[in-house]
Structure formats: structure tokens, C-alpha cells
Amino acid sequence: MTLPLFLVDEAVLAGAASGARVVLDGAEGRHAATVRRIGVGEHLLLADGGGLVATCVVEAAAPARLDLRVEDMAVEPEPQPRFVLVQALAKGERDDQAIETATELGVDEVVPWQASRSIVQWRGERGEKARRKWESTVRAAAKQSRRPRTPVVSELVTSKGLAGRLAAASAAFVLHEDATEPLAGQDLPASGEVVVVVGPEGGITPDEVAAFEAAGARTVRLGSSVLRSSSAGPAALAVLSAGARWR
Predict the structure, then answer these.
(1) 82-244 belongs to CATH 3.10.20.30
(2) Could you tell me the pTM of the whole model?
(3) Alpha-carbon distance 240 to 243, whole Å?
(4) What is the pLDDT of residue 1?
(5) Which terminus of the chain faces fewer neighbouring Cβ atoms within 10 Å, N or C?
(6) Nearest alpha-carbon partner for 94 in 208, 197, 232, 241
């Protein structure tokens, strides 16, 4: 069984080496000591969310704190190619569900997209609050799936801004129910960004599709059925991972 992983600020592991003493406290410390009941002599992983991982042994335990000794340090390289999910804002927290599962399946960045047909609107403080919720969601999912790297949550993009992002990608795919070409079997670059675009409940408008195709994206389908906005992105990530990572 893999060791439990806890996410810490970069400063906790900065400069740490084998034999160093570090403290796990705060919310993660309470979870480790009180919920997981990790005790003296047990091992765990600390990660800074950027790929740095420390294997540690517990030397002392308190209700909301663990004193640890570092036994090993490692850096997990960033996967190549880099997977980016552009998720249209959706109602009923379906976009939250999408990015949570996509994180578990290996997405490296999620981009919130204010599509023309998105019912949900991110504006002002509400938009900032929603984005922080996305960050919390991917952080929790990365921890649960024991990922040393936490996906980046980018700033909200409009359709015009998204077209520019697609033009710069090494490969870009727009999921669309009318597409005839399957995502499975597509040639993927060895490096760079592979971007997948998932539209809102009402679908992607013809003008958006035309703009994205003009930017170099290819419209593709996952299968014969139409998936919800909460499941299309994760399904696409699974297809891409099977072709590039799960080998």
C-alpha cells in the first residue's frame, strides 16, 4: 500500500535533506494525527505540490502535530506531454466534479472557460470565490490520489482568449457530439501542451467551433453517446493517458 501523502507549503521542504527535522501541523497535521491516527514510527510522504517529495518517519505525535525526520528526498519530473483541460463553467457543480476526477486522472492544468452558453457566470467576488473553490478541489483530489504535483488552476478565459491558447498548444482537441473523428488513436506530441476543450450543457456554439478550428484545434468525439459536462473531460483524460502515460 502506498504511503499517505500530505501537502505542505514550499517553505517546509525548502532546503530539506535526509536527516532534517520538519513539522507537520495546521489542518494537515490535525488530519494526519487525529483523523488518520498516524503515530510514532510510521512513515508518510510530504509534497510541496510542485513535484518535491519527502519520505518521512514520525518521531513524535500530538493531537494536531507530527514531528518528522526526513529519510529521503525526491523530485517527480513534470509529465510530458502536459495535459490541459479547458472546462466550461457549468451549473450544479458539474464543473467541480469534472476537475476533481480529472485531477485524479492526471490533468496538469485546468482552465475555467466562460463559454457563450455557460449559464453560470463568474464575476467579481463571486468569480474569485469560485476559482478558490476550484483550487481547493484540485488540491484535495491531488492529495487523495497521492500526486506530488497539484494541477494549476488558471484564470478565467473567454472564447476569444481560449482561441489564442489553442493556437499556442502542441495539440488541441474540442469535444463535440457532431464530430466524426474519434479522440482515441490521435497522434500526440512527445512534449508541449495537449489541450482538451469541454463545452457547457448547452453545447459549443458554431462560431466558437469555427474560431477554435481556425486556431488549429480538431473537433473530436469520445464515442457514440453524449456525456455530461462533468464526465466528458475526465473521460478524455483517460483516453489521452492510455495513449501517452499508462504504458
Answers:
(1) no
(2) 0.89
(3) 5
(4) 65
(5) N
(6) 232
